[in-house]
Amino acid sequence: MSSHDANVSTGARVALGTLVTGLADLVFAMGFWWVSHQVPPLRILQSIGAGWLGEASFAGGARSAALGAVSHFAIILLFILAYRQAARYSVLLRTRPNSAGAIYGLCLYLLMNFVVLPLSAAGMASFKDLAWVISSIVMHAVIGVLCAHYALAGRPPAGKRASSAAGMPTNSA
């Protein structure tokens, strides 16, 4: 870690992770739906806003798209913070961010599609487009890895004792 990296706050790293991860996900979704079905990018954001507004989101123009964008980045922030919190108690999450992050992302896919969406105004996700389902599952694994790396940013390298990190619990068992 360079001396410049040491001066970057945890909050700034998490904010950057939220921006990078959220944009990666949006570019993926917008690109997929534009290329495969000519769905305009604004409609992708409106579909996120549909979690709050239901079908009315698609008639809401830029306002419902803005609601979707804010909601999307808030969800990504929560994903990163949840991984960061869980990593305080799990050596595996701290030492294996790629594999643990990929599994985390797959769990996020299941959570979003089988819990959050059915409880939202958007309703249950459709699984009719197999290309979307498969690529979305893969992208969620990538999102999980990004969340893991940004959640752990600023923490000591995995080889250091957990007790040397501020606020990290010790594993003396």
UniProtKB/TrEMBL annotation:
<keyword id="KW-1133">Transmembrane helix</keyword>
<feature type="transmembrane region" description="Helical">
    <location>
        <begin position="130"/>
        <end position="152"/>
    </location>
</feature>
<keyword id="KW-0812">Transmembrane</keyword>
<feature type="transmembrane region" description="Helical">
    <location>
        <begin position="12"/>
        <end position="35"/>
    </location>
</feature>
<feature type="transmembrane region" description="Helical">
    <location>
        <begin position="103"/>
        <end position="124"/>
    </location>
</feature>
<protein>
    <recommendedName>
        <fullName>DUF1440 domain-containing protein</fullName>
    </recommendedName>
</protein>
<feature type="transmembrane region" description="Helical">
    <location>
        <begin position="65"/>
        <end position="83"/>
    </location>
</feature>
<keyword id="KW-0472">Membrane</keyword>
